[in-house]
Specification:
The protein has one domain: 3-Layer(aba) Sandwich (Collagenase (Catalytic Domain)). The chain contains eleven helices and six strands.
Length: 267
C-alpha cells in the first residue's frame, strides 16, 4: 500500500511539473525599449494605454514572441514585423490575463496576398488574394499573414482594417471549439441570442447600404465578428458613435471598453 501511495505522489508531482506554467525570463531593458519604440510609432491602441497598462502590454508581447515562432515564407520576418504580429494577438486578448493562444505554434509571413490552393489542392475553385488565414487540417496550429497587409493595417489610419487583429479574433472565437462568430467562452450565455439578433440587424443595414461596416462582414457570422472587431479596435471613437448597439456586445466579448483615451480593459 505504501508503494502505491509513493507512486501516486511521484505521478502527480510529475503531472504538476509538466502542466505548470513555464517561467519566462523577463525581457532585458534594451529589448523592452525596442518593443516600446515600435509600439509607440505604429500601434495607436498601445499609445493610448496608461503607463501601467503599457508595461503589461510589453510583457504580453514578450510572452508571445517567446512562445510562438514567426517565420517568413518568402519574405524576411524582421523584428519590427514580429512585434506587429504580437501586437495583433495581444490587442483582442489583452483583458484575458496571460492568455497566449495555446492552439497555435507558428505565424507564417508572406510577401504578398496568397491563395488557398495549398490547403485544397484538388478543389477547382480557389480563393485568392487572401491577406490572412487561420490554418486548417495539418496547418491548424498556424496563422498565415501577408506582411505588407499586416503593416498597412497599423499604418493606414483612414480605414478601420487590420488583418492581424482580424485573424486573432477568429482564434479567440475558436476557444469554444468553432469559429462561428459566437464566442461562447467569452460572453454570458444570456447575451448570445441578442448578439446574433444584433448581427443580423446590422447585416440588413450593410445589404441596404446604410452601414459603413465593410461588406466582407456579410460572408458569415464569423467574418462579421472579425470585421466588426477590427473597426472596434482600430477606430473606437467612430465605432462608438456609429454603432452603439454593437459596441455594447463587443465590450462584453473582449471585456474592454471605449473611452476618450481609447480602448482599455474593464476594471
Amino acid at each position: 500500500m505504501i508503494y502505491l501511495i509513493i507512486l501516486a505522489v511521484i505521478f502527480f508531482g510529475l503531472l504538476y511539473y509538466i502542466k505548470r506554467p513555464k517561467s519566462i525570463a523577463e525581457a532585458t531593458p534594451a529589448v523592452t525599449e525596442t518593443y516600446r519604440d515600435i509600439l509607440l510609432k505604429e500601434v495607436d491602441y498601445y499609445e493610448q494605454l496608461p503607463e501601467e497598462e503599457k508595461e503589461q502590454f510589453e510583457k504580453r508581447i514578450h510572452l508571445f514572441l517567446h512562445e510562438k515562432k514567426i517565420t517568413g515564407v518568402d519574405v524576411e520576418a524582421d523584428e519590427h514585423t514580429k512585434v506587429l504580429v504580437a501586437a495583433s494577438a495581444v490587442i483582442p486578448a489583452f483583458a484575458f490575463d496571460d492568455y497566449n493562444y495555446p492552439m497555435i505554434r507558428e505565424v507564417l509571413l508572406y510577401s504578398n496576398t496568397f491563395d488557398d490552393s495549398f490547403l485544397h489542392p484538388n478543389r477547382e475553385m480557389k480563393q485568392d488574394r487572401i491577406s490572412g488565414m487561420v490554418g486548417e487540417g495539418p496547418l491548424s496550429q498556424v496563422v498565415m499573414l501577408s506582411k505588407p497587409d499586416l503593416i498597412r493595417g497599423f499604418q493606414n489610419k483612414s480605414k478601420p482594417h487590420n488583418v492581424g487583429i482580424h485573424e486573432f479574433t477568429h482564434l479567440l472565437d475558436k476557444t469554444d471549439g468553432t469559429v462561428d462568430g459566437i464566442p461562447e467562452h467569452l460572453m454570458d450565455r444570456k447575451f448570445i441570442a441578442p448578439w446574433i439578433e444584433e448581427m443580423e440587424k446590422e447585416v440588413r443595414k450593410i445589404r441596404s447600404g446604410s452601414s459603413d461596416i465593410p461588406p466582407y462582414a456579410l460572408t458569415n457570422h464569423a467574418e462579421f465578428l472579425a470585421v466588426a472587431s477590427e473597426y472596434f479596435f482600430v477606430a473606437p471613437s467612430e465605432f462608438k458613435k456609429k454603432h452603439p448597439e454593437l459596441l455594447a456586445y463587443l465590450q462584453k466579448i473582449f471585456r474592454q471598453e471605449v473611452s476618450e483615451e481609447g480602448v482599455q480593459p474593464i476594471d
